[in-house]
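Per your request, structure below.
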């Protein structure tokens, strides 16, 4: 997922040749095309674009996971249907052979002998032979009917799963278009900014993160947090920090690139404790812990929509995959709006 380290406080002063109120001649916001945009407007535009891409990325990941599950389910049902069709053909052939044998009086075919036991002739050397044959035919016909119903049920299930799969794939495609559109617009804005303006944005970002972290630390919470964690937590942290420097790619879960929840889910999978793929499901399904009980390996979930996640590594820092154009890196815990903390693995 995408980091919100790019969220910039508009009240922070910038030591740059372009002031906050000064117009940016290189780019004009779509909302203000009749006049050049200010740096503040650029910030707001980038905020909106990256955050909507962030939310769409979570939707894409969820839809992809669901589509993969549905695809496997459809494949399994199709295999079951193939087996049922083969079984139905065999039973139908056996029932036909039994009926023909009964009609011609030719005796018991092998199929009926299997139904009646290892020594059918010994048990059918009396007047009950005809009844036993009829019973065998009835049993075969019953098996045929049962297999037909089973095949019909599986066919209906497969058809339903296919419809569900198409719907999920449609959602995935829509999310993909949203992501690509928002990222393309954000990149276009950044590419048209002058070097001084980009430096200004980066400086604001750093100052904003430092200010938020200082305010968070002023509560004394860092004194309560230690470095002790579980063996699995150590493994997860080791995996996540080993990915530092690899690029952010939306929808990616390694080994060469990651999005935010791709990084955390793979880290905990490497630690032997698989967790949900998306940050929203990580927040929904994993046990919540108080912030002052946070330990390395815990996941910090960000923003009210749980659209971003990082892993606490100790010392007041997280490791996370920020956003397109950036790489897996460390950042202050409070550099983004904290929703809460969850703990995989226990």
């Amino acid at each position: 997922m995408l980091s919100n380290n790019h969220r910039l406080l508009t009240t922070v002063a910038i030591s740059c040749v372009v002031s906050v109120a000064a117009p940016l001649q290189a780019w004009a916001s779509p909302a203000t095309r009749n006049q050049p945009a200010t740096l503040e407007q650029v910030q707001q535009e980038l905020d909106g674009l990256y955050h909507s891409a962030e939310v769409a990325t979570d939707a894409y990941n969820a839809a992809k996971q669901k589509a993969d599950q549905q695809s496997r389910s459809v494949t399994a049902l199709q295999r079951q249907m193939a087996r049922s069709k083969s079984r139905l053909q065999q039973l139908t052939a056996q029932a036909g052979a039994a009926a023909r044998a009964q009609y011609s009086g030719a005796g018991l075919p092998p199929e009926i002998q299997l139904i009646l036991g290892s020594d059918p002739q010994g048990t059918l050397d009396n007047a009950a032979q005809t009844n036993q044959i009829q019973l065998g035919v009835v049993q075969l016909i019953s098996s045929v009917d049962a297999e037909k119903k089973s095949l019909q049920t599986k066919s209906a299930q497969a058809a339903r799963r296919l419809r569900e799969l198409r719907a999920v794939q449609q959602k995935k495609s829509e999310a993909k278009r949203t992501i690509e559109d928002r990222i393309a617009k954000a990149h276009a804005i950044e590419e048209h900014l002058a070097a001084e303006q980009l430096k200004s944005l980066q400086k604001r970002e750093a100052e904003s993160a430092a200010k938020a972290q200082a305010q968070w630390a002023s509560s004394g919470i860092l004194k309560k947090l230690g470095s002790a964690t579980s063996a699995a937590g150590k493994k997860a942290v080791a995996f996540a920090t080993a990915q530092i420097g690899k690029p952010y790619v939306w929808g990616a879960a390694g080994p060469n690139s990651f999005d935010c929840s791709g990084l955390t889910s793979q880290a905990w999978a490497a630690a032997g404790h698989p967790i949900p793929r998306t940050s929203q499901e990580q927040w929904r399904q994993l046990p919540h812990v108080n912030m002052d009980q946070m330990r390395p390996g815990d996941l910090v979930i960000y923003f009210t929509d749980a659209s971003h996640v990082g892993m606490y590594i100790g010392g007041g820092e997280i490791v996370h995959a920020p956003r397109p154009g950036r790489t897996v890196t460390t950042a202050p815990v409070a550099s983004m709006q904290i929703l809460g903390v969850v703990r995989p693995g226990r």
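Strands lie at 23-24, 37-38, 288-289, 299-302, 308-314, 317-320, 329-332, 338-342.

Regards,
D.
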